[in-house]
Design a protein that fits this description.
alpha+beta; 2 domains; five-stranded antiparallel sheet; 21 strands; 24% strand
Length: 388
């Protein structure tokens, strides 16, 4: 794994305009940096990232199977008890999942260590699937990267294929908080994939979803919502005023309700508890677990909220010294402790490796780079290549 300097495309502003990305003169595309790329070997991709991601996905599904039958686990995750049967039914009915992103710390010399699983509302999808691939095609055409470079990037085709086999035969609605730009852009792209799969779709804001007299969800034209692709966390949905109607609404959700178990960072201590010592997992415990004391006593750990976004309220301790502590709105929420596995340091650049999962299969790579050990909202997407 190497960080390779690359000449920026001369037509970057035009490319940004073509893709609806924000371009700032002198700075480039917001959240994107093509002045470098990360280079991997085929072995690193296959053996250190793809293989472990697929194996961890299987472990996660085993966690779900255990959780739906164990009330204490669902309580640990903070899931309201009125949703327990609903979540269990979604699992037992084999409701299909669409996508997620596993984030790893990896320096090129495996094993990659799972830091968290963005299983419900992952973003940077369009950059991963489309813009990163276009960059590679241009870079190859202009000789900016070595001939023969490839990518782990079957994201677009995999999403279209997933929609094609799910069997949605009626109007499919797409909804998010449209004021969150990353969420809206990501959902727009997913809707484009659904259209390519010949699905009839309709976007609406989350706040525009209504309820009819029978307790069914409806859109602004009073059409009944039968399937909903959302970019809105399950924990937010469960806290809405209309939440009591969700289990009886008849809506097929993407992601399905059982994904709420995997999108919670409480997944990490559950994984460790079931598969302690797995080479791709880090020790992890709920903050009130007696075992967490032993991890804290090592002086090397990360404290993170069970439910949070964009690197908020994370504390990193190394050798009993706090290296970094981020602010955010989750300070008084339940936390977990996880063993500290630092991101690799490339002269002050810290890459986080994301592996895209579509229908539970690893299909793409996403690298976000920040200037510190916590990958936050100011991180930049760096393209990757595979070259032997």
């Amino acid at each position: 794994m190497q960080r390779i300097p690359v000449t920026v495309r001369a037509n970057l502003e035009l490319a940004a305009n073509d893709h609806g990305l924000e371009y700032i003169a002198g700075e480039g595309i917001t959240g994107w940096d093509e002045s470098a790329c990360y280079q991997f070997t085929q072995r690193q991709i296959k053996e250190d990232i793809e293989g472990p991601a697929e194996e961890i996905e299987d472990l996660c599904l085993q966690v779900v199977d255990r959780a739906i039958n164990t009330e204490s686990v669902l309580q640990r995750l903070g899931i309201p008890d009125e949703f327990w049967d609903y979540i269990a039914d979604s699992w037992r009915n084999n409701e299909k999942n669409l996508l997620g992103r596993m984030d790893f710390s990896y320096n090129g010399n495996g094993p990659a260590k799972l830091l968290e699983y963005n299983a419900d509302t992952p973003t940077t999808l369009y950059e991963s699937a489309v813009f990163q691939w276009e960059w590679l095609e241009h870079a190859l055409d202009k000789g900016l990267v070595s001939e023969g470079c490839d990518q782990l990037n079957d994201v677009h085709e995999s999403i279209v294929a997933a929609f094609s086999v799910i069997g949605l035969e009626t109007l499919t609605h797409f909804a998010c908080n449209a004021d969150i730009e990353d969420d809206k852009g990501t959902l727009d792209y997913i809707e484009e994939c659904a259209n390519e799969a010949m699905l009839e779709t309709c976007f609406l804001k989350m706040e525009d979803i209504g309820i009819d007299e029978q307790g069914r969800f409806i859109d602004l034209d009073n059409r009944i919502i039968t399937s909903l692709v959302k970019l809105y966390p399950w924990e937010w949905l469960m806290g809405e005023d209309y939440a009591s109607h969700i289990p009886t609404s008849g809506v097929q959700f993407f992601e399905p309700p059982w994904k709420s178990i995997l999108s919670n960072k409480g997944l990490l201590p559950l994984l460790w508890g079931m598969f302690e010592g797995h080479p791709n997992l880090l020790p992890a415990f709920f903050e009130d677990d007696p075992e967490s004391r032993a991890l804290i006593d090592t002086g090397n750990y990360v404290r993170k909220p069970q439910l949070s976004r964009q690197g908020a309220n994370i504390e990193i301790v190394q050798n009993n010294v706090t290296l970094l502590q981020t602010d955010g709105p989750y300070a008084d929420k339940p936390h977990i402790f996880q063993g500290f596995e630092p991101l690799p340091d490339f002269e002050g650049k810290y890459p986080l490796i994301g592996c895209w999962m579509v229908a539970s299969k690893p299909v793409g790579l996403c690298i976000r780079e920040d200037n510190n050990l916590v990958t936050g909202k100011d991180a930049k997407f760096i393209p990757h290549v595979i070259l032997d």
